[in-house]
């Protein structure tokens, strides 16, 4: 059964980018450390051999991708990376972009992009239909917070890197979220990362 999951790398002090992110530095200053676990070894991911991981990290990454049928991201992230030049690193998985207006021009590649202009409920509904029973993965902070606030997020899968960034975009920043209790589902001590899976209690 399809679940809606936040799947994102985060610093120990709660940031998902470093300071001053921009198109030339989409992860901000020092932000590449957040994803160092994806290059922590010599085991290529079966989904994209660009990622060279440790054995354990590869198992975690490949299993998560195996279970993912659609992804949702925000427009700001999409613009920062120029739409991944039309081809998201996770091949074959449709990506839904939450935006106020679809872009007039966008790069063409192998990924199916859908631009959703009518809110988080619609984005998740469309993504679930496209996922065909697999999970819907959300990978940007603003959309994750919107899904939590709407009561639509079921799990949080964090990849916590041993780094303090000191600034940037906080995953759970702001005051728009109500208090939530979570239940720990899984803790995996990987190379250069701790993988933490939580279930959001209703």
TrEMBL record:
GO biological process terms, semicolon-separated: riboflavin biosynthetic process
Coiled coil regions in record: none
A GO term, aspect molecular function: 5-amino-6-(5-phosphoribosylamino)uracil reductase activity
Ranges where the Bacterial bifunctional deaminase-reductase C-terminal domain occurs: 3-188
Domain of life of the organism encoding this protein: Bacteria
Protein name: Bacterial bifunctional deaminase-reductase C-terminal domain-containing protein
Source organism of this protein record: Virgibacillus indicus
């Amino acid at each position: 059964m399809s679940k809606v999951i936040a799947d994102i790398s985060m610093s120990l002090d709660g940031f998902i980018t470093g300071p001053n992110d921009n198109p030339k530095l989409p992860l901000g200053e020092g932000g590449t450390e957040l994803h160092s676990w994806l290059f922590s070894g010599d085991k290529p991911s079966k989904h994209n051999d660009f990622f060279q991981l440790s054995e354990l990290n590869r198992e975690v990454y490949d299993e998560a991708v195996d279970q993912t049928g659609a992804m949702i991201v925000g427009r700001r992230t999409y613009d920062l990376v120029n739409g991944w030049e039309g081809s998201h690193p996770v091949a074959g998985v449709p990506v839904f972009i939450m935006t106020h207006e679809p872009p007039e021009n966008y790069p063409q590649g192998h990924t199916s992009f859908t631009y959703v202009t009518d809110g988080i409920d619609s984005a998740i509904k469309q993504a679930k239909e496209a996922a065909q029973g697999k999970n819907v993965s959300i990978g940007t902070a603003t959309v994750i917070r919107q899904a939590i606030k709407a009561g639509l997020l079921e799990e949080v899968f964090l990849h916590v890197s041993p780094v303090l960034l000191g600034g940037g975009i906080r995953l759970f920043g702001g005051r728009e979220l109500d208090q939530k209790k979570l239940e720990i589902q899984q803790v995996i001590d990987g190379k250069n990362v701790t993988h933490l899976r939580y279930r959001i209690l209703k």
